[in-house]
Amino acid sequence: MVEKEKQQNRGIYLLPNLFTTAGLFAGFYAIVAAIRGDFESAAIAIFIAMIMDGLDGRIARMTNTQSDFGAEYDSLADMVSFGLAPALVIFQWSLLDMGKFGWMVAFIYAACGALRLARFNTQLGIEDKRYFQGLPSPAAAACLAGWVWAGTSNDIDPALMTAIALPLTFVAGILMVSTVRYSSFKELDLHGKVPFVVMLVLVLIFAFVAIDPPLILFGSFALYALSGPVLTLIKLRQHRAERERQQEK
User: Fold this and answer.
1) C-alpha angle 40/174/74, rounded to 5°?
2) Which of 46, 75, 138, 182 fits 132 for a cystine, CB–CB 3.0-4.6 Å?
C-alpha cells in the first residue's frame, strides 16, 4: 500500500500542466515566428501565452491540483514565454540594426525577467497577495508584444519604432526587478454575483478593444506599467504630508 501511494505521488496532474505546456508552446512559437519575420504572429502568440498562464493556476486551484512540480514548471515556462520570447521578438523586429547595444538591451530585459521570477518564487506564501513586487513578467511581455503588434499592423515609421522600442524594453526590464508595487487584482471576487451593469461594462470593454486590438492592448498594459510608479509617488507624498502634520502638532 505504501509503495502504491508513493507511485501515485510521483505522478503529475495533467489538466493544469496541459495549459502550462500550451503557454510554453506559444512562447516558443513566438521565437520561431520572429526568426521567420512574422512579427504579428509572434506578438499574438505571446498574448496567447498570457491567457494560458492565467488559466493554468486558476484551474489548478479550482480542481485542487496544485503541486510543487506544477509551480516549478509554470515558472520555467514563464521564463521562455515572458522572458526570452519578448526579448528576442523585439530584438529581431527593431533592435537588430543597433548592433551590440541592441542585443545588450534585449539581454537586460531577459535577465530581469529571470530575476523577477526567481524573486517571486522565493516570496511565495509571505508576500501580500493584493500586490506584486515589481512589474509582473506577463504584463512586461505584453508591453513589448503590444508595441510590436501595433507597429506591425499600423505601418509605423521604423525610426519611431526603434525610438520607442529601445527605452520600452529597458524600462520594462527594470520595472520587473524594482520594488514598486502593482495591484494583483486577486481581491476581485469572480465567484460571486455582480450587478447587471457590470456585464454591460464588460461588453463595452470588449467592443472598445475590438476597434484596434494592438493599440488598445498596448496602451492598456503601458498604463498598468506606469500605474506602479505613479501610485508609489502618490503614497510617498501622502506619507510626507502626514509627517509634516505630525511635526506641526
Assistant:
1) 65
2) 182
Can you read off the three cell numbers belonging to residue 19?
495549459
The number of folded domains in the chain is 1
Identify the domain containing residue 30 by its residue range: 2-248
The CATH number covering residue 94 comes to 1.20.120.1760
From 236, 125, 229, 114, select the one nearest 175 (Cα to Cα).
229
Residue bearing cell 526570452: 84
Mind listing the pLDDT tens digit for each residue in 41-90? 999 999 999 999 988 888 888 888 888 888 899 999 999 999 999 999 99
Q: Are 151 and 93 in contact (CB under 8 A)?
A: yes
Radius of gyration of the chain (CA): 20
Q: Is residue 136 left, alpha or beta, with left meaning phi > 0 and alpha meaning psi from -120 to 50?
A: beta
Sign of the alpha-carbon torsion through 7, 13, 14, 18: negative
In this predicted model, what pLDDT tens digit does every residue of 147-180 receive, in sequence order? 999 999 887 888 888 899 999 999 999 999 998 9
DSSP state of 178: S
The residue behind cell 506577463 is: 138
Cell 495533467: give the residue. Answer: 14
- d(C-alpha 45, C-alpha 222), whole Å: 19
Q: pLDDT (tens digit, 9 = 90+) per residue, 221-240?
A: 999 999 999 988 988 888 88
